[in-house]
Amino acid sequence: MSDFSDANTESRWYVAHTYSGYENKVKANIEKIVENRSLQHLIMDVKIPVEIIVEKNGSDEEGNPKEKEVENKIFPSYVLIKMVMTDESWHVIRNIRGVTGFVGPGSKPVPLSDEEVAQIGIEIRVISLSYEIGDSVKISSGPLRDYIGIVQEISDDKKKIKVLVSMFGRDTPVELDSDAVKLLDM
Q: How many domains is the chain partitioned into structurally?
């Protein structure tokens, strides 16, 4: 009997625990095995979250500051893998040298939630809006539901917007999530 449902063909992000300092070797081994065994349909991506820190180390002969970029692992001893969890994919990852197991209770890997993926910044989702600054929109959720306003501002990441809403005879700017409004059909 299978531990994982073969009916689930959706790829999700999972976290594999590795020995300290083995993250890059594990990533390289996973990529090599995926290529050699043609497992691209099961294992889509492998990432090691890093941040780049610029270190200043004195100055050179001309007095210019010496800078060196250093990669710091955000989660040492962990590798993030986007995969369809099946017996075969679990077995491949679990048996790579340096992998101690998946994050989750017992031998049952738990995928990262969409919120966790967004917070870590593994996948960048591009948000496209059906409206722009100056358009009339109808608020579709929250306490101001069904109010009509004009879009004044859209944040750089397109997650928040500012809408000018007429309340009690006054125009009032309201900050909303970008998915809380719909373009008003004229």
A: 2
